[in-house]
Each structure stands twice: as C-alpha cells, then as structure tokens.
C-alpha cells in the first residue's frame, strides 16, 4: 500500500505554508509515497452551490487556501523520490498554455514525478471570478485535456475547440515524463466516471474517515469505470486509482490506518492520500500523523 499526504495548504496549515519544504522532506523521510495539493480559488460568502455540489455552504476550513502550483514546486525541490499530485486542480479555470507551463516546470524540477489530477469543480462563483460560463465546464475540461495533450506532445503546438483555442506556437520545453504526465481525473457522477473511462490514466475517488467510508459505493463506481472503459475499447487495468482520505476532526490515527488497510483489502486500491485539512491540526500535528499512520499501515 502506497500512502501519501496532503501538503500544508488549507485551514490552519495555510498560515504555516512557509514550512511546506520542511513538511515535504519529513514526510518523504518517514516513508510517504506521495505528496498532494487541492485547489480552491475562492470560497464564496454566499455560495449558490455548496461544497461538492451539495447544499449552499462551504466548510470554513477552505476559506484560507495557499496556491497549489507554488506548493508542488516547493515540494519538488525539497524531495527526491515521492510522487507529486493534485487531487484535484479545477483545470477548466486555467488557460491551457499557463496550466501546461506551470505543470511542465514542476515535472521537470521533480524529474518526472508529477501526477496531475483534474476536476471540473462545483463552484459557480469560481467560474464567475475567472470570467467563464459554469454550464460549459464539462466541455471545457475535455478541450483542456486535448490542448494539454497537444502542448505536451507536439512542437509547434496548437489547439482549436469550441470553447478555447491555443495559437500555433513553439513548444520545445516538454515535461520530463514522456510522452506526457498521466491524466488523473476526479468525479463520482456517471458523466464524470465516463470521462475517466474514456480519457484518464487514473481515477481520483474520495472518502471521509470515519463518517463516510462507502466501500460498496467505491466498488460500484470502479465497476462502472471498468465497464465504460471496455465499451470505449480501453483496458480497465490501464486506469490507476488514488483514493483521497479526508479525516474527521478528532479521529485517532490508528483508526485512519485501519481504514486504509481495509480499503486496500476490499477494493484493491493500493494508493491513498491522507488529508488532515478537516482534522483541525497545524503542521506539527500533521507531521505526527504522518509517522503514526505510516507505522500503523505497516504494522497491519
């Protein structure tokens, strides 16, 4: 089982972002397999759509948010072996040229360790702030993936779609990983899971320990992805999975480790990332959890 951890980015840890390199080095030294960021461009005061597309509230833990690209770059320079992922970047919010440039830089700094994970997002206000139409986010995601693929594999590179375009331009600087970094995609809806099946190199599901660990649901969603992949002429085994594990406040680390082992045994998912954003902890407490969770998973 590969166990990764979220970098200091949200809630209390956002105010300790200067310790990101320290956290990254310590987590790698403790045996972490990967380090991760999320994405929150803003948390609206009066959101029309709530967290995860449900209700009309956003957790206060997401109000302070550090920049994901900067954090990944810091971690890339501070580590030597861990994978560096995003679970997830709201890709349609970013112009493809700028998104490709940032991720290419991070991948080259890290020597090819980038696992870029993307999602369409759920906040209309984030799209409003970017000057974009929220209702076209799915189509923009598909075109963003097409544009990234072109920029990362062609020189000169260009792309023209219905919602975005990239002029033909010189593109000699490519990511270290060839032919390109893998596309990981999040989502739980049938439409999102079909996109995973058609387009993704990996799927990014999530759970919450202990309040929402739906193993039956995870298995059903993965079966849906596998069936849709076969319909699209793809081999399901070519689609990786990395499970995000959010921790409820007050949850003991040994309970998190037990959940990680159970997930692996039941679903076959062999890579998880642990996020302590909602556990009301600073960087010191988060680093203590890194050691305790890794020890618990190994002990099991």
Automatic annotation (TrEMBL):
GO molecular function: alkanesulfonate monooxygenase activity; transferase activity
Keyword Flavoprotein carried by entry: yes
Record-linked SUPFAM superfamilies: Bacterial luciferase-like
Pfam short name (any one): Bac_luciferase
Residue ranges annotated for the Luciferase-like domain, each copy included: 3-266
Keyword NADP: no
Keywords: Flavoprotein, FMN, Monooxygenase, Oxidoreductase, Transferase
GO BP: any one term: alkanesulfonate catabolic process
Protein name from the UniProt record: Putative hydride transferase
